[in-house]
Design a protein that fits this description.
mainly alpha, 6 helices, Methane Monooxygenase Hydroxylase, Chain G, domain 1, about 0% strand, about 220 residues
């Protein structure tokens, strides 16, 4: 019974790492769809989100069963509780990648991002992809130094988000209200998915130390 218990704990950890890989790939493909008006990439992100959702449901089922049947304590209890939180955060990262892909699909064959904003959106997409992938590494290694680095990556996203809004509000922006709305939403999507990925790092910090690293809830939806 105990062997099965620890195998299930390992299954949860492996599943979280796989989720982070999937959502990191989704963010990267969604950014490509956006910048290149790549309909195939957009549709792939949307279709493959079901794989993320399925894994999310499976991990939740295993975690709940472990809580109900094994009554874990100490570090094992923290591992299961934080796994529930992390799977939810990673699922939301995937959802935001889908939102980005849907914007690209809705505007196809037009390119959503004007030439003068491509560098900003590309940098946001690359930073967001790095954060999602690093979240998986943090889960795998429980490396608190790497977990702290995600905060710096998130600061980069926040700065780019502010830069994007500044350009949208500039008198030099000449692409109309519809384009401005799309770009404002895209900036928000990148900012929110990064917050959810960073929330994973806080969960790992709690798992390792038993202390909450930040009282602010990065994963609160707005």
């Amino acid at each position: 019974m105990r062997a099965s218990y620890h195998e299930q704990l390992a299954e949860v950890g492996d599943g979280l790492i796989e989720m982070s890989r999937l959502v990191g790939s989704a963010v990267s493909k969604a950014t490509t769809a956006l910048l290149d008006a790549d309909l195939s990439a957009a549709e792939t992100v949307i279709e493959q989100d079901e794989e993320v959702n399925k894994l999310y449901r499976q991990l939740d089922d295993v975690a709940v069963q472990l809580l109900a049947r094994q009554q874990p304590v100490a570090i094992d209890l923290r591992a299961i509780v934080t796994a529930l939180r992390m799977s939810s955060d990673l699922e939301r990262v995937g959802d935001y990648a889908v939102h980005i892909a849907k914007v690209a699909k809705r505007r196809h064959p037009a390119t959503v991002v004007p030439v003068e904003l491509r560098a900003t959106i590309l940098e946001m997409g690359q930073a967001a992809t790095r954060i999602a992938i690093k979240a998986g590494t943090v889960i795998a290694t429980r490396d608190l130094t790497l977990a702290a680095q995600l905060l710096a990556d998130d600061d980069t996203i926040d700065e780019l988000h502010a830069e994007l809004f500044e350009k949208l509000l500039s008198e030099n922006f000449e692409h109309g209200v519809e384009a401005a709305i799309d770009l404002a939403l895209l900036g928000r999507y990148y900012e929110r998915l990064a917050d959810h990925a960073v929330s994973v790092s806080h969960a790992v910090t709690y798992l390792v130390t038993g202390e909450h690293s930040d009282p602010e809830s990065y994963a609160a939806d707005a």
